[in-house]
Automatic annotation (TrEMBL):
Organism ancestry: Bacteria, Bacillati, Actinomycetota, Actinomycetes, Micrococcales
Protein name as catalogued: Long-chain-fatty-acid--CoA ligase
Uppermost EC category: ligase
Native source species: Renibacterium salmoninarum (strain ATCC 33209 / DSM 20767 / JCM 11484 / NBRC 15589 / NCIMB 2235)
Sorted UniProt keywords: Ligase
EC number(s) stated in the UniProt entry for this protein: 6.2.1.3
GO molecular function, one term: long-chain fatty acid-CoA ligase activity
Amino acid sequence: MNRNMHATNREASTELLIDLPAESNVTDLLLERVAADADAILYERKVDGVWTPVSAGEFSDQVRGLVIRTNCFGHCPRRLRRGDVQHPL
């Protein structure tokens, strides 16, 4: 970043569309979405200039893969095997 430029933080918020229990978390929300419809599109991401849909199931698999890789970095009880991570990030 140019030293003459100042970084600014922006805050955005929206009203809740559903009521959530205080003890709920983002993992609960994702697992509920996957259980309801794993093929439902959660978002799109740009890959090689083309917007590509990502389903709830695909995103869940990516998150699980990331958790496996993160937890196994340096202190994994066993080596990762083929199939442990299905969708590389």
